[in-house]
């Protein structure tokens, strides 16, 4: 892996842990974080030994406290539109072929919440806090927040969070369906890695097809979604992993998936 200034990558067997590393700025998403994060994810995409990615923020205080507000000060509308339409972390995560788990320990705000929502699964510590505070800066979410939050928790709760800019705590985020699990700060990492390990054992091809099919659900009508699901289901029948999975079941043993 290349050396980055704002990103750390550590490989633990089949899991890669990607850390956004600006703890003194609560891991705010600067343009450098976006550029380096995208580059690191491109590397991880082609690393065949890596089956699952876990994303976290450095330090004890924040996952990510939003876009780097200092970069907003002099930004023109045209430049800002260009930035948001470019290959940002949000778009790369959204279309990433391998499962991504956001491990959230602390503030998860604005672009941080948008980043977590662009991942596939969110696991939070009980001290995490979530929100879309852009309204307090006189702007709106621009990294997918209005769309993904609404898809995840429904229009009425999303509307309230986005219009008030207020934060919610981890149990509320769990009740809303924004996060999959809440653990104590001490157990957050071990529980997240346990989940990542469980997913990493599956066929990477089938995982990729699952992601594509599930993500399509909120972007299509049900008939198109059902047709897409059947196509992806059928593609799985061309793989060695499908042969192995079915054979292992019939032979009453654990499958070993190779991604072929
Ligand atoms: N962009 C740039 N810098 C940020 C930042 C952001 N989104 N969030 C925090 N920081 C910086 C602070 O400016 C401060 O830097 P400094 O030490 O050089 O002054 C440092 O991170 C620590 O933050 P601080 O505000 O001192 O911590 P706190 O515990 O008092 O408050 C928050 C924590 C999260 C409530 C507060 O930092 C905050 O409101 N951040 C902005 C959240 C936001 O609006 N995000 C959406 C952006 S679109």
- What ions, cofactors and ligands are bound? coenzyme A
The general outline is globular
Name of the level-1 CATH class of the largest domain = Alpha Beta
- Assigned CATH superfamily of the largest domain: 2-enoyl-CoA Hydratase, Chain A, domain 1
* Alpha-carbon Rg, integer: 19 Å
Indicate the mean pLDDT.
Answer: 95
Helix and strand composition category: alpha/beta
Task: Describe the fold and architecture.
With about 260 residues, the protein is of the alpha/beta class. The chain has two domains: about 5-200, Alpha-Beta Complex (2-enoyl-CoA Hydratase, Chain A, domain 1); about 205-250, Lyase 2-enoyl-coa Hydratase, Chain  A, domain 2, CATH 1.10.12.10. Helix content is about 45%, strand content about 15%. It has eleven helices and ten strands. It has helices spanning about 30-45, 75-85, 90-95, 110-120, 145-155, 155-165, 170-175, 190-200, 205-215, 220-235, 240-250; strands at about 5-10, 15-20, 50-55, 60-65, 100-105, 105-110, 120-125, 130, 170, 180-185. The strands form two sheets. A six-stranded mixed sheet has the order 1-2-3-5-7-10, with helices on both faces. Strands 4-6-8-9 form a four-stranded mixed sheet. A hairpin with a 2-residue loop joins strand 1 and strand 2 (about 15-20). It is globular and about 60 Å long. The two termini are about 25 Å apart. The model has no long low-confidence stretch (mean pLDDT about 95). It binds coenzyme A. The site of coenzyme A has 16 residues, from strand 6.
């Amino acid at each position: 892996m290349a050396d980055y200034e704002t990103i750390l990558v550590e490989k633990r067997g089949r899991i890669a842990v990607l850390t956004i590393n600006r703890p003194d700025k609560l891991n705010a998403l600067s343009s450098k974080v976006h550029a380096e994060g995208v580059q690191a994810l491109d590397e991880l995409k082609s690393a065949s030994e890596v089956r699952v990615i876990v994303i976290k923020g450095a330090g004890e205080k924040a996952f990510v406290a939003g876009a780097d507000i200092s970069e907003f000060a002099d930004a023109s509308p045209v430049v800002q539109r260009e930035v948001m339409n470019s290959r940002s972390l949000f778009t790369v995560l959204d279309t990433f072929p391998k499962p991504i788990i956001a491990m959230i320990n602390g503030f998860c705000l604005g672009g941080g919440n948008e980043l977590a929502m662009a991942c596939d699964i969110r696991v939070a510590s009980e001290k995490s806090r979530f929100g879309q505070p852009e309204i307090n800066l006189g702007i709106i979410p621009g990294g997918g927040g209005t769309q993904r939050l609404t898809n995840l928790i429904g229009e009425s709760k999303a509307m309230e969070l986005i219009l008030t800019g207020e934060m919610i705590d981890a149990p509320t985020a769990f009740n809303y369906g924004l996060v999959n699990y809440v653990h104590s700060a001490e157990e957050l990492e071990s529980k997240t890695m346990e989940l990542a390990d469980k997913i990493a054992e599956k066929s990477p091809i089938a995982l990729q097809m699952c992601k594509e099919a599930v993500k399509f659900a909120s972007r299509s009508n049900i008939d198109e979604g059902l047709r897409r699901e059947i196509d992806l289901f059928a593609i799985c029948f061309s793989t060695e992993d499908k042969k192995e999975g079915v054979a292992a079941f019939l032979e009453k043993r654990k499958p070993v998936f190779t991604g072929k």
